[in-house]
Design goal:
Layout: H1 9-18, H2 26-41, H3 57-76
């Protein structure tokens, strides 16, 4: 899923939750990073769900940095072209 300007905070939270195990997957890391960025850009001044749960945005800032580093490192190790050679 790719978030757009029509996406909701619920969409971003679901995308983030669906990609929590991003450490071994570049694709999941990119999706989680997109969700974190969306949440941080669209964050309210204070978030409380009425059940005593709240969002800690400073933790998301740290998560964003870890995701950016992972995506950057995994991109550096990728070659845009793959050459195959048939073994006979």
């Amino acid at each position: 899923m790719s978030l757009t300007s029509n996406s909701t905070l619920a969409d971003a939270l679901n995308q983030y939750k669906n990609n929590l195990s991003w450490e071994d997957s570049r694709v999941k890391a990119i999706l989680a990073l997109e969700a974190v960025r969306f949440i941080l850009v669209n964050r309210p001044i204070r978030a409380d769900d009425g059940f005593g749960r709240s969002v800690n945005y400073s933790q998301l800032e740290g998560e964003k940095k870890r995701l950016e580093e992972f995506v950057k490192m995994s991109s550096a190790n990728r070659s845009p072209f793959v050459r195959g050679k048939m073994n006979l």
